[in-house]
Amino acid sequence: MLELNEVKISRIVLLFVLLLSLHVSAQQDRPNILWITSEDNSPYLGCYGDAFATTPTLDKLADEGFRYTNAYANCPVCAPARNTIITGVYAASNGNEQMRSTYPKSKTVIPYPELLRKAGYYCTNNVKTDYNFAGDYNSMWDECSRTAHWKNSPEGKPFFAIFNLLTTHESQLFPFIPNEELRHEPEDVVLPPYHPDTEEMRHDWAQYYDKVEDMDAQVGDLLKELEESGLADNTIVFYYADHGGVLARSKRYIFQTGTWVPFIVRIPEKYKKYFPAEKPGDAVDRNISFVDLAPTLLSIIGAEKPGYMQGNAFLGNIVEPEPEYVHLTRARMDERVDMSRAVRDKKYRYIRNYMPFRIYMQHLAYLFNARSAQSWEDYYLAGKCNDMQSRAFQTKPVEELYDTENDPYEINNLANDPAYKEVLERMREENSRWMKEIRDVVLIPETEYTERAGDGSMYDYMRSAACPFDELLAAAELATQAGNGAIQQYIELLKNEDSALRYWGVTGLLSHIEDAEPALPALKAAADEDATATAVLIGETLFQLEEKELAEKIFLRILNDENRTMMERNWVLNSVDAIDFRTPTIEKWIKDFYDSKSEELKGWDIYSNYDFSMCKMILERWEVIG
């Protein structure tokens, strides 16, 4: 009996050792993953057909890998784009879409590095985080620093490593490089039709292409290091940009120029089963966007995709169906408040503007550090821009529709063309369907996030019984319909108990201001509105209906209330600037606020204190300060 037990024990031990060895083998067989990201650049690469670009490294990588031709950032700016990537949930669904912000993330939503680490990967980030939610970003990584590197991973453990290259970031245009030092000649630049032909515009385009060339060389250094480490044959390499850019009307805008990104994946022969096309060097036309990246990582490593993730895995063990549409979003950009949504298939792009009374290219403090942006605005104010170039400084239509195959710069709006009615309705319905599916937070003004969510997240609030989601979506659609609007229904919304529904009521009136005169009694009755965003738009609507004294009282009531937040003051200042509401009392408040803060705020603080930044821009435009 003892001998039999010993035989059984021996067999059990052998089985355990075998299972352990198989587990270790499986661990070692899983690919390493290297992500190389660049900042603020559209596919200005030779491999994407750009003859002006000098990008030998990335062109070679595309020859060795797979070049995606329909890859998109769901948000056209850094922090919300990264929020979507790190969570696998649209920033517009997380409640982390506003650029920048630190609203809470739902505990339901787990950043993918934590999932990869749980699955046995060593995860390292060098070095940018910028995830746009409150919390400790570093704790989700094994290492997150300027020295973070795959070479620090333990023996036999697969790694996931990111290197974030800042060389093409927008800020790299701000230091002026003399023309004679540029490698790309300004006179050889082919300008997009929406840009005026100014000396500054040509210079910045040429300097930008130099920066893309520098970035390409940095990618080469990383790939060489990977090769020399002997790990290239076990490592899947991704290269992509964090959104489009970078000259004005690209970054921050949900046009093709702000959302289309270069995206290249090199897969070693060892992992041929993951090839998305027949052979390396092939282009892949599948629709992919950043919300798909976290599910794709989990698919590659063989981990289960959590139910909260909203994207589709496009590589790995389980490739999910290709989405017919890509969804794109834009909300507040730094100090400038705006709201738009877009839907794109492989031929058309539909855009719905939820604040059509705002111009496209509001004067954004950070953006207008670029001499090219300044020159565009100067040309417009001097009357030198043609109709196409002038459009950037004019208010928006409610709906836009572009045939991106035949109109890649998205110049010719087809929304009012009867020949495209069916396409317009299809895309419009898809936008509404998607907003409902992801519980889009844009339906609540940002000034109410904390009041509604408390210490929790807007992701959770939008899914709670407290949120009248269906009514909000219907009100937003009603408020931003084309044509004469529904004035009486807007008036009724203005009387609703829910402040966000009142917000959409006044949005409808302001969006259809030419027909809003019958709403004047209701607007006057609502002049004591306490919810800031709603009150501000009531004031702006009253101003447009020539009730300027009452509008001024509303604005000053909010500005003088010490319990109001920076963001609430910022909403007022956005309206003041949009309608150029210059009165002695308003000007004095702005000047006093500016003076009280100007010595305290320096450097980046000027841009991150949005109320101060707005005051500075308004006073400069009014020529109160230099």
Number of strands: 14
Q: Look up the CATH topology of one domain.
A: Alkaline Phosphatase, subunit A
Q: In percent terms, what proportion of residues is strand?
A: 5-15%
Query: How would you name the oligomeric state of the polypeptide chains in this document?
Result: single chain
> Globular, elongated, flat, extended or rod-shaped: what is the shape?
globular
Determine and state the CATH class of one domain: Alpha Beta
Helix content: 40-55%
Number of helix segments? Answer: 23
- The largest sheet has its strands arranged as 5-4-6-1-7-8-2-9
pLDDT < 50 runs, ≥5 residues: 12-27
Topology:
Layout: H1 2-29, E1 32-38, H2 56-64, E2 66-68, E3 71-72, H3 78-87, H4 91-94, H5 112-118, E4 122-126, E5 143-144, E6 159-165, H6 199-228, E7 235-241, H7 256-259, E8 263-266, E9 283-284, E10 288-289, H8 293-301, E11 326-330, E12 340-344, E13 348-353, H9 371-381, H10 387-390, E14 399-403, H11 421-438, H12 449-453, H13 458-462, H14 469-479, H15 487-494, H16 499-511, H17 520-525, H18 532-544, H19 548-559, H20 566-579, H21 584-598, H22 604-608, H23 610-621
Parallel strand pairs: 1-6, 1-7, 2-9, 3-10, 4-5, 4-6
Antiparallel strand pairs: 2-8, 7-8, 11-12, 12-13, 13-14
Helix pairs in contact: 6-9, 14-16, 15-16, 16-18, 18-19, 18-20, 20-23, 21-23
Structure description:
With 626 residues, the protein is of the alpha/beta class. 40% of the residues lie in helices and 10% in strands. The chain contains 23 helices and 14 strands. It has helices spanning 2-29, 56-64, 78-87, 91-94, 112-118, 199-228, 256-259, 293-301, 371-381, 387-390, 421-438, 449-453, 458-462, 469-479, 487-494, 499-511, 520-525, 532-544, 548-559, 566-579, 584-598, 604-608, 610-621; strands at residues 32-38, 66-68, 71-72, 122-126, 143-144, 159-165, 235-241, 263-266, 283-284, 288-289, 326-330, 340-344, 348-353, 399-403. The strands form three sheets. It has an eight-stranded mixed sheet, sandwiched between helices. A four-stranded antiparallel sheet has the order 11-12-13-14, with helices on one face. A two-stranded parallel ribbon has the order 3-10. Helix 6 runs antiparallel to helix 9 and helix 20 (566-579) runs parallel beside helix 23. The radius of gyration is 26 Å and the shape is globular. The termini are far apart. The model is unreliable at 12-27 (pLDDT under 50).
